[in-house]
Specification:
The chain is α+β, with helices and mostly antiparallel strands. The protein contains nine helices and 37 strands. The strands form eleven sheets. Strands 11, 13, 15, 18 and 19 form a five-stranded antiparallel β-sheet that branches. Strands 17-16-14-21-22 form a five-stranded mixed β-sheet, with no helix packed on it. Strands 25, 27, 28, 29 and 30 form a five-stranded antiparallel β-sheet that branches. α5 (about 495-510) runs antiparallel to α6 (about 515-525), α5 (about 495-510) runs antiparallel to α9 (about 555-570) and α8 packs antiparallel against α9 (about 555-570).
């Protein structure tokens, strides 16, 4: 009994230390308790647990923009020995981070939330954030100027000129612009000339920052930002107050010279954080006027339309590649041009109902169609016309291409046993035998008797034998489909699916395919359950969608970065 008591007293400190590794309360921290309007601070919740916790979302706070940034996970191994028995436990350290951006001044209380792990609940602590008004600084100015005057329309592409007047050295410049809800910030134009002054971070992207002038120790830098206007669908007007934009950076406050170990003069600079507001300015956003023309293509701005074809002479039924290029403001909004519903085209050509998405080439939107002439009476590809809204005149106007000459010859295969019949009333070719078209084919080689002889199959026995063999062969896809369905009913475990997704991501990064970005998107759709479990994966997939559907260009490094971050989030 005495030995057990001594062993218990010896192991008591280790047991207390092991017990202390599991706190009952979540730790809450705020990067700064005081900030300025537009300056982001970070709120972090930390908790240690043996199970994966679930964080309840924070409630919205009026005057604050709160965005979930993701989670970080660390591990900690603890070992206890009781009566000679070793007990090892793995403790997970979870850190949840929110980005808090104030949009108004005042004192705000960010409420508490609950972190649930198994049967335990950890309550966070409420935090107080004081937001001050940004004061003007005589040494720096931020000026925003739209290219459309004081009003813009839904769907219009607006170029916003961002200028900074700087009178002293600065570092780590970031500009935040509160764009209207649902508006799309376009990526920088890849065809633009590189800037000698480097890039500036505007919201979440980097734009070329060019030095314009320098007068009396005051330099002017500028960048061009383009966005597509939009706002909540129920309203018909909105206001874009770009005077609420802010620029945050570090400015030199003092300079001191010193001598290094080699006797050279070294200039030491002391920096201090600075936040300045933009000059006042507002942009009125309006909806498109009603009624809209029936052939309105959704273009807001004055476009330039051009058309081209890969051949000027063809036979009836030959595929002709028709390219329609739309260049100018507002072309990025167009996703389809329904040529098959335009009478001038559908009456002369067979046009597929479905086609590939448009191509984005240096600010141009290119639609590619495969059209087939229906008869030798076709002499040209007609002009394409559409209506667009011109914000300068505030009226709907019409743009059109030039017609393309096309010489169509009768098909040289019209006398074969199988021909392709094209009719203006359908978009699907119909393979018709010569029996149905006997009255249309000239009887130059024997008439109806020749047609019947050509239509007769000479080896009926062989035909029946091949037909009998083909019957069981056709059952193979059905059997394979049943087997695959049975296998899908026994789904893989989560660990196996994570392993399979990581393997697919590694293969994707090693691939040289030009469609890597689209393959990565399809991969996230296939494993959408794993993506939904990890907020970090969800953010990367949202970023991936913005890249794919914004129409801008992307690089191989962008694909590698997104796939690597998704793979790290699965660990």
């Amino acid at each position: 009994m005495m030995k057990k008591m001594v062993l218990f007293l010896v192991l008591l400190p280790a047991m207390i230390q092991a017990r202390a590794a599991f706190p009952y309360n979540a730790q809450t921290s705020l990067s700064r308790s005081e900030t300025y309007v537009g300056q982001t601070v970070y709120l972090t919740f930390s908790v240690q647990t043996e199970e994966k916790p679930v964080l309840q979302p924070l409630r919205n706070v009026y005057g604050l923009k709160i965005e979930y940034m993701g989670e970080n996970v660390g591990t900690q191994m603890t070992t206890t020995i009781v009566n000679g028995r070793r007990d090892s436990k793995t403790v997970y350290n979870y850190r949840y981070t929110y980005a808090v951006t104030p949009i108004e001044t005042g004192t705000f209380i960010i409420p508490q939330t609950v972190i649930t792990a198994g049967s335990s609940e950890y309550k966070t602590s409420p935090v107080k954030l004081t937001v001050k008004e940004i004061g003007k600084n005589e040494n720096f100015r931020l000026i925003l100027t739209p290219d459309c005057g004081d009003r813009a329309y839904r769907g219009q592409t607006v170029t916003l000129s961002v200028e900074m007047e700087i009178s002293s050295n600065i570092d780590s410049l970031e500009i935040t612009i509160p764009f209207p809800e649902n508006s799309v910030l376009l990526s920088p134009d890849s065809a633009g000339n590189p800037s000698d002054s480097g890039n500036v971070k505007i919201n979440d992207a980097y734009y070329p920052f060019k030095r314009e002038t320098a007068v009396r120790d005051r330099a002017l830098f500028s960048a061009q930002v383009r966005f597509i206007v939009d706002f909540p669908g129920e309203s018909h007007s909105a206001e874009f107050d770009y005077g609420k934009a802010t620029a945050s950076f570090r400015a030199v406050t003092a300079t001191r010279e010193s001598v290094d170990m080699f006797g050279r003069t070294v200039e030491d600079r002391q920096y201090a954080p600075v936040v300045i507001p933009a000059e006042q300015g507002k942009l009125l956003l309006l909806d498109l006027p009603e009624p809209r023309p029936a052939d309105f293509a959704g273009i807001v701005g004055k476009p330039r339309l051009t058309a081209s074809a890969d051949m000027s002479e063809a036979y009836v039924g030959d595929p002709v590649t028709y390219r329609l290029t739309i260049e100018g403001a507002g072309n990025g909004n167009i996703e389809t041009v329904p040529l098959n519903k335009i009478g001038d085209f559908s009456s002369r050509f067979r046009i597929p109902e479905h086609h590939s998405p448009p191509l984005k080439e240096n600010g141009k939107t290119v639609f590619v169609y495969t059209i087939r002439p229906l008869s030798s009476a076709v002499t040209e590809i007609p002009a394409y016309r559409c209506s667009y809204f011109n914000p300068e005149t505030e009226r709907y106007e019409t743009a059109e291409t030039k017609p393309l000459p096309l010489k169509v010859n009768p098909s040289p295969d019209a006398g074969d046993s199988q021909i392709e019949e094209f009719s203006a009333g359908t978009n699907i070719p119909d393979a018709v035998s010569l029996e149905r078209l006997g009255n249309r084919v000239p009887a130059a080689a024997g008439g109806d008797r020749l047609l019947r002889r050509e239509n007769r199959f000479p080896y009926r026995t062989v035909y029946r034998l091949l037909y009998g063999l083909a019957y069981p062969i056709t059952l193979l896809p059905l059997v394979a489909a049943v087997v695959c369905s049975v296998r899908r009913r026994n789904p893989q475990s989560r660990r196996e699916r994570v392993r399979a997704m990581k393997k697919a991501l590694t293969a994707l990064r090693n691939s040289d395919s030009p469609e890597r970005m689209m393959r990565l998107f399809r991969l996230t759709e296939e494993y959408k359950d794993l993506v939904a479990e990890s907020p970090a994966c969800g953010r990367e997939v949202d970023h991936l969608k913005k890249i794919l559907f914004s129409g801008g260009s992307f690089s191989s490094e962008e694909c590698d970065s997104v796939s690597r971050k998704i793979e790290e989030a699965l660990r």
